[in-house]
Structures are given as C-alpha cells and as structure tokens.
Amino acid sequence: MQRIHVTCTQKKCVCPGCSSLAYGAMEELGPFRVNSDGKTLQKNKYSWNHAANVLFLESPAGVGFSYSNTSSDYDSSGDRRTAIDNYIFLVNWLERFPEYKKRDFYITGESYAGHYIPQLAHTILLNNKNANKTIINLKGIMIGNAAINDETDNRGMYDYLVSHAIVSDQTLHDIRTFCNFSSGTIPIQCPTALDEYNQDVLFIDIYNIYAPLCNNPNLTAFPKKNLIVGDPCSGVYTHSYLNRANVQEALHANVTKLKYDWESCSDLISSKWSDSPSTTIPLLQEFLTNGLRVWIFSGDIDGVVPVTSTKYSIKTMNLSTKTTWYPWFFNGEVGGYAEVYKGDLTFATVRGAGHEVPRYQPGRALSLIRHFLKGTPPPTTKRQP
Amino acid sequence: MQRIHVTCTQKKCVCPGCSSLAYGAMEELGPFRVNSDGKTLQKNKYSWNHAANVLFLESPAGVGFSYSNTSSDYDSSGDRRTAIDNYIFLVNWLERFPEYKKRDFYITGESYAGHYIPQLAHTILLNNKNANKTIINLKGIMIGNAAINDETDNRGMYDYLVSHAIVSDQTLHDIRTFCNFSSGTIPIQCPTALDEYNQDVLFIDIYNIYAPLCNNPNLTAFPKKNLIVGDPCSGVYTHSYLNRANVQEALHANVTKLKYDWESCSDLISSKWSDSPSTTIPLLQEFLTNGLRVWIFSGDIDGVVPVTSTKYSIKTMNLSTKTTWYPWFFNGEVGGYAEVYKGDLTFATVRGAGHEVPRYQPGRALSLIRHFLKGTPPPTTKRQP
C-alpha cells in the first residue's frame, strides 16, 4: 500500500501511473479525508473546493478506476496518448456539463504531472487555435514538486540529499564520477556507490524526509476523530475505502467490475512507459509567450523532486526577475518563499511540506491556490490573508 | 522571552551567555518539563538521567542564577575565564560530593558550548597532567550543533540556508562577493544583501527552520496535560517557573536576591565578550591524540549552526574514516546518519531536530547519549535498541 519506493537509480525518479483520486482527492486537497477505520470520512477544512470547482482525473487508462476495454492499450501508454485521452475526456465532460463551458479553467497537479499538465495545456491551446475558437477556456496551470527536466531534476535530487545530510559527499562524488547513465558500460564503482545511496534513503520516507513511517498498517476498529495532518498510514485507509463495494457504488465507479483491486499507483502501465520526453520546459516557455499563468510550487522537504531540482530547472529558462525572492505568509507564519519572473511565472516554495504539499501543509496550499486563481502573488506581509 | 534573534551579520552566529538550566535542563534533557501554566511540572520520559547522573551548570557568572559579587567581572567575561571558573567549580563540587570523585566523567553541551566544553576538557587534562594524577576522571566529550570553527561555521550556515530554500542564490552570491567582514571598508551592496538575508530569516525560527512560532506567549490557567515535543512557547513557561519564589527556594537558588529576573540568556555579559578564539578544532585534535572520546552531533533542521557547518568543520580535520556514512536507527526509524573517524571521533546527525536536539527529538537524543556513554557507535540496524 505504501508508495512504491523509488530508488532513483534510473534516469527518472518519479513515475507515471499514480492516481489523482488516491493522492489528490483523498489525501491532499479533496473535500474529505478517510478516517483510520477505512470506511468513515471527515471533512477537510482546507479543501480546494473552497476556492474552486475541482475535478479529479485518474489518468491514463489503467490507473485507479480508469480502464480500457482493450487491455493491450496498457502496453502502449505514454505521455502523448495521455494528453490526447485527457483532452478528449475534458471536451466530453464539458459537453455533458455545458454550464462549465465558459468558465475559467485551470489545471494543477504534482510529481509526474509536470509532464501531464503542460502536455494537456499544450493540446488545449493547439486545439483552440486550430478550431479558431475557445473550446476550453484555459487560463493557467500550476504544478508542484514536478518532474519537468530530467537533467536538473536528477542533479537537484542528489544535491538536495547531500545538503540535507541524508547522503554523504563521498557517495555523491562517486555517483557523479562513475555513474554515467547514458554511456554503455558502467564501472564497478557505480553500483557500489548506488548501493550506498540506496542504503541511505531506503529506510526513510523520501517523499517527506522528516516524516515518520507507517509502522502499523492496520485499520482501527474505531475511527480516529481528529484530522491528522500527514498520518503516515493514510494510504492504507484510502485503499480500504475505495475498495469498498458501497463506496464504489456511490461513486458510480467500477461498474464493469475490474479483475483487480483499486490501487493508488498502477503496476499495469508504469513499467511499460516509454514515451516520456526529457523535458517539458519548452512547453512552459510556450505558455509564458501565450500569456498563460504558470505557477510552480515546491514542498521543501520532499527528496524526490526537491526544491533544489525545481530551482535548477527554472534557472535553465533564463527568465528575468520581476519580484525577487521573498518570504510569503499564511496565518502569521512564513508559508514559504516566492520569486516572480517576467512572463508571467511564479515560483513558490511551501515550507515544511513533502511531495504531496496539500497533505502536509493544507493551509499553506489552500492559500497558494487562492492566490494563483486570483492572479495575485503570494502575500508579502504577515497581515495579508 | 523568545531567544534573541541572531541575525548573523557578525562574524559569529551563536553567542555565549545562555543558561544550561533554561535550555538543557528545563527544555531539553532534564527530568522535568514545565507545563503551560508556568508552575507545574511533568516528567520527561526521555530525560538523560535515565543514562547518567547529570549536573547542569549556569556558566559563566552573570548567566541565570550564577553571579559575581564584583559586578565589573561581567565586563571581562570570556572563554578563558569561563574555563577556569568551570574547572574550579567542578573541583569544589567533587570535594563537596566526594562519592563522585572516581566516577567516569563526561561533558556535553550545544551551541556556544563548542567553545566551553573543549576548553574545559583541555583545562581538566592539563591539570591532571600537571598534578600527575587524575583530579577529574574525564573520559569524553559530546557537543551538538556547536560553534567550533568560525570560517566553516559561517560558510556552512549560508550554504545551508540556500540549499534549504530560505535564502536565495543571488543573496548568497552578493554576500560572498561584497561582504568581507575582515576588511575595513564595506561596499554598499553588502548591507543591501544582508538586508535581503535578514528579511528571509527574520520571521522563521532559525533554530528550527520548520517549527511554528510562539504566537500566544501567555501562560494558561490550567496546565496542558501532555508532553508536547517542541512547544514553541516553552521558553515562556520556563521563565515563569524559574522566577517563582517557591521554586527558587526549593532549588536553593537566588539566595542573595538578584536585582534582575532570571533570564534564559544574559544580556549582562554577551555584549562584552571579546575572548573567543576563532576555532576549537586544535583542542578536539588534542583530545583524539589523548584517547578522549569525542562525539559531535547535529540536529539537521537547525539553521544557526547547521549540519553543513559541522560537516565542513570536521572536514578541516582531515581524519581517516573508520566507518563510512550510514543511517542509524532508533525505535525502528532512521534517527539520523553517522560516520566514525579514526581517532576516535564520531559524527552523528539527528534527523528532524533543531538547535536544541533533545527538545525536538528526545528519544533519538537519549539513544545517542546512551551509545556515547557505552562507547558504541549509533546502531546500524533497525533491530538494535
């Protein structure tokens, strides 16, 4: 049930195939959280529904309740296909609920969504242009702890783990010296260094380097009453909840009775994913040219796509600064730091948040999405809301 | 009541003059913690008394309840005088409690104690040698988040705050380029960069970069029942408690009725401190040569004397590695990382701990002191205690 441990010995550290219903809706920004009994819910007072109408998409087919009637489809999943399918879904959804057609539309996501979201946004812009009308009224995108550029993502991850005293300088040095993943032959020192690396990260939650682990992955007979920010076992509760027959019935999900359990991350597709460009930065640059609002945020205690990676990635864009680095505030505390670039791109960190930002810092995350939707930068003073 | 905010624009980021009774005893490793009413106590189940007999020293005169009859003494405080006074105190204490004379003796401390402790240990070794007998049976020292080498302490602090996305790369670059504190003239860009820096760190607790602030510094009418790890207002409770007449009477403290409140950090002396060598590393090296056990630990979310500083400082010693960097365990979790050097010096980080390590990670800290006293390295496997 725990997220598959990503050892990051491969080129990419984050994989496609995880569910927005699992993470996004049930453990991060959705209106409810599952209690520790795996069957009752509590309200999430920091739900993003307070700021907007939110639609969660389990994508591509093979993830969560999404499926294909042609099982061979799972063997040919990839970024391009996902973007096209997501676009078709959206257009159909707007046909089904036409009252939303003219509304401002924003897309957000985290992790591998650093691919999905720019690619979907690009597809929307392209189709609007080809059709010479606004099919989908896209205004902006926001991505968090997002894979956007392999080279800087990887370099930033190693630098982060060293500067956060998880991996030693020596191991980093050895990996840099001996592990050239693009070359054919790998010297013996490389696997040794990677072994060291794996030993260092294996027993912590690399998605939140200071979080406790889920040591008792059992449901409780009675629900825990209080909303617990970042309960390490919350994935267990969600798994149980979404596999309940009455829940699936209420959600109108799994009507075809899939032959497998609902899972937060899909093994079906992630291993066969080949269509994954090394960067989505040209797309972000395209959006800035087209006046789309682009926000990039980063929970600063994530070790998978860390803040260092995102800083490096943004740096490759060579943007001019509009507002230099400053602390932004939520509820009288520093919510993180922000920098605004001409374009108009906003980068904001979220202090004390892991990979799933709204899970670990729900208040700060809700504040960010509100400012994003309003088009105002994260507040510079303690007094602002 | 809050610790004085150290802006670190000076050469040193940590100052002498804080009390071991305030921090060490009442908020970190002592047998009791003060409740939120400021007058009742709760037991600290992670007290270091479970591992050893512990003596707390408010030092030098002018700190806490320690005083001098000659008030001009406060104007001439310094490292040398502190070491001599501390030594005299210890010898007298052992005369008064001779049953402890032959016991193994260890000294530990944090922050500016990176000066006090090596200097006191050096004084003990010197006096033992001069007297040609064991006056104090010193076996080892342990220091945490300790100022030990100005140059690396400072460099490490800036690097830490940048890699932890608190200060921007640009500000660091400007400080490095324009702020040469040893030169006579300072270009205008330097104060500008330092202003930026101060804005970035001013509103967070730099002693624990992810901690909440104390927003309601009032005592409660009723004590909070549970031991709260790292209550941001605990300093308020301690201040109230140690200024109570009945508490002072019970402690046999303040019998001369000082004309000022007991304070956790002394303004009396810290501003006039001039005798502070730029490094205590030669003393650490002396101890290794003399077979003294030396442990250096580091809470890894402290921004004042961060883990980066301590890593840089140890590196200047050019030691050979005995056991390379590995995760150590407490209670089935990674307690931090450790490296053992020939000599015999052990470096251990404490994961998720701020400047006051036993305050934020009491279990991990107690485990560390136990291993230190036993002379066994922090455990390499999950199963070990």
UniProtKB/TrEMBL annotation, chains A, B:
Keywords annotated in UniProt: Carboxypeptidase, Disulfide bond, Glycoprotein, Hydrolase, Protease, Secreted, Signal
Any GO molecular function: serine-type carboxypeptidase activity
EC class name: hydrolase
Keyword Glycoprotein assigned: yes
UniProt-listed GO biological process terms: proteolysis
Pfam families in alphabetical order: Peptidase_S10
Subcellular location: Secreted
Gene Ontology cellular component list: extracellular region; vacuole
InterPro entries: AB_hydrolase_fold, Peptidase_S10, Ser_caboxypep_his_AS, Ser_caboxypep_ser_AS
Predominant subcellular localization, coarse grouping: secreted
Top-rank taxon, per record: Eukaryota
Entry's EC annotation: 3.4.16.-
Biological role: Probable carboxypeptidase.
Family: Belongs to the peptidase S10 family.
Protein name, entry field: Carboxypeptidase
Origin organism lineage: Eukaryota, Viridiplantae, Streptophyta, Embryophyta, Tracheophyta
